[in-house]
Amino acid sequence: LHSDQDKGDGSLKYILSGDGAGTLFIIDEKTGDIHATRRIDREEKAFYTLRAQAINRRTLRPVEPESEFVIKIHDINDNEPTFPEKIYTASVPEMSVVGTSVVQVTATDADDPSYGNSARIIYSILQGQPYFSVEPETGIIRTALPNMNRENREQYQVVIQAKDMGGQMGGLSGTTTVNITLTDVNDNPPRFPQSTIHLRIPESSPVGTAIGSVKATDADTGKNAEVEYRIIDGDGTDMFDIVTQKDTQEGIITVRKPLDYEMRRLYTLKVEAENTHVDPRFYYLGPFKDSTIVKISVEDVDEPPVFSRSSYLFEVHEDIELGTIIGTVMARDPDSASSPIRFSLDRHTDLDRIFNIHSGNGSIYTSKPLDRELSQWHNLSVIAAEINNPKDATRVPVYVRILDVNDNAPQFAVFYDTFVCENARAGQLIQTISAVDKDDPLGGQKFFFSLAAVNPNFTVQDNEDNTARILTRRNGFSRHEISTYLLPVVISDNDYPIQSSTGTLTIRVCACDSRGNMQSCSAEALLLPAGLSTGALVAILLCIIILLVIVVLFAALKRQRKKEPLILSKEDIRDNIVSYNDEGGGEEDTQAFDIGTLRNPAAIEDKKLRRDIIPETLFVSRRTPSAPDNTDVRDFINQRLKEHDTDPSAPPYDSLATYAYEGNDSIAESLSSLESGTTEGDQNYDYLREWGPRFNKLAEMYGGGESDKDTS
């Protein structure tokens, strides 16, 4: 910058303000030259607006008005083209025609497109030829080869270059990668790997059983590989079905009708597999279907017998004789061996054993009388099994209908409580009766009513509708003379053979009012038990329970009392041992013990029964004669001891008898080893061997010791 007022004497000073002044741009105060302090990037800012002014250095006053100017940055090619994505993903259908658009890639250049060719981009393909090409100006990638097959190669990687300066030498460039996938189209038909498939199935397989599967392979994927299977030909089209399994794309062959090895052993089917989604563009590649031959062999199985019918119905009259055949079931062995068959009845269906069956020919006959009135239908189950293999058995239902025979006489429908008023007149209706019959004739029930004998008091009039009226034949009845009349009525049916019965009406004579309402009767024709209500029954049961509880408590209390001991002692010994916690005065103490009591048994109380136990036998208490005063105490005690030994009711059955008398020394010497040890002389124990086998051990112990001592 230079001012017209600048004379070059340094009196003026230039100052700069605005965008980047002092940082990016500086001005020489003396000369006004503007300099850049660092490299300028147009992509950061394309122009800067600055203001400059010349002032007097001494007064600092402007010598000219402030001027504004713009610094514009000219672009150079310092930025290469860039793609927004480093890797692109695209797809194109296989078998596409040449030039099919795949994807468009676009690069950007930060340089100024309006200045030179710095931002002019040209696209080219570096990798991916000859399969794909790219348009230089637009960056659209297109197919370059026809009939690219996904089944041969599915993935491709294409590298695209974008170069500025119009693609000329010296231009900057950038690249990106495009991963291209060929998508599937239905250009491959299904194919069976085998021309003939063999399957086997047992003849006993039920309908719906899966025999096996067939599968045609298709190089396509997804819905383009979906296949539908069907049976198009063969001699087993009516015996088998095929179902397409969607998840596995297999054809499952199933049994449609029951198989029979004896009828046919081999079936041949022609199975076809066809694509369900066919692309019309590829019809020229041929039919999208294939076929194979499936041969099915039926295997022989030992089958159970087969009845001639699925069920049997027999009708028989209830009056047939025992052993009469009511029908025959027939069965055969379907196997080629034709084994003999044994018939039997399932007794769970004939618990009363009314029927039986001949095991050889299947004839069913009666073993007990039939009664239609008890059971009109009998549902039996007959079992047919091979004699050689009883496990192979078949059942068939047999329905036996019992036909009616007129074997039951009609009876009164209900019990009739009939009365006649004392003031009744002749011809007055006192009762209407009806009858029932257990039989069921084809023409319906028809009953006839009559009297067993002529009755002067009453008559019966048949209404011819299975009812009859009981009428009086005279005027006036007296309950004081006759309180009850018995009227026999004969009831007959009209079926063959005719059945009849006699029912007796009990007619009471009662006092009635003027309207014929009964007031009182001298005698009741029938006493009906009075019904008890539920509350009364509950009350009776409660009373019975309370009484039982009282009896049980009383018995338990009584038993507890019997168990109480008579004498309570500090030491728990037997009940009849009494403990006195004092010491006697010895033999010379005549005050503590009265010898006269022993000598005078009459002074002792009568013998009392023990309360702590129950003796097995009760004996009459015996009086022991008293001993004279001069009898020695020893003789007296010996006499009492002998009496106790011979008395079965005396102790010790549960007691302890103590005699306070020592007596003389025993004639038998002591066997104590303590005493024998102090004896100076040797003792002979040979007599122990003579005492029997029980003393052998003792004899060995003592006898052996002596012998050893002698030998030593």
TrEMBL record:
Pfam families: CADH_Y-type_LIR, Cadherin. It is found in: Cell membrane. Cadherins are calcium-dependent cell adhesion proteins. Its main location: membrane. SUPFAM superfamilies: Cadherin-like. GO terms for biological process: adherens junction organization; calcium-dependent cell-cell adhesion via plasma membrane cell adhesion molecules; cell migration; cell morphogenesis; cell-cell adhesion mediated by cadherin; cell-cell junction assembly; homophilic cell adhesion via plasma membrane adhesion molecules; synaptic membrane adhesion. This is CAD10 protein. It comes from Upupa epops (Eurasian hoopoe). The chain crosses the membrane at residues 526-557. Keywords: Calcium, Cell adhesion, Cell membrane, Cleavage on pair of basic residues, Glycoprotein, Membrane, Metal-binding, Repeat, Signal, Transmembrane, Transmembrane helix. It comes from the Eukaryota. The keyword Repeat applies. It is a single-pass type I membrane protein. CDD domains: Cadherin_repeat. GO terms for cellular component: adherens junction; catenin complex.
